[in-house]
Amino acid sequence: MIIVLMGVSGSGKTTVGRLLAEQLGWKFFEADDYHSGASVEKMRSGIPLDDDDRRPWLEALRELIRDCLRRGESAVLACSALKESYREFLLIDERVVLVYLKGDYEIIQKRLARRRGHYMNPNLLGSQFDTLEEPAAAAHVDISPGPGEIVKEVRSRLGL
Length: 160
Description:
It is globular and about 40 Å long. The chain is an alpha/beta fold. The chain has a five-stranded parallel sheet.
């Protein structure tokens, strides 16, 4: 099984994803690691990515998912996957499941203001919410509790 934890920047994908993967004994992958240098610089400069910027990134993530499935490895992937078309591209079969880490703008804005050492410009949060197409076919998990409680909820929802 591949769990794709999706949501806007600051929703807790990496923190929750690492903890979830650790508890399950699975591999963890951070989708941000697959962005090109040019895309990282755009985001650092406060310029939102467009679909052309994201295409090679999504292709690399799809190949990562495909490789894990071929090897029979379970994994957690932290990935914004803001648009339905992106999710459709990544959800290549029934072994790939989607969990939406959902939070309101104010909570996430406060988290981003405290975050250090990440290239994502906090000023892009508005564009992330503008781009977000909330998924219908996903487990929706509220991000208000702490990471441990969120992981517990994800595991419960997925029967893990």
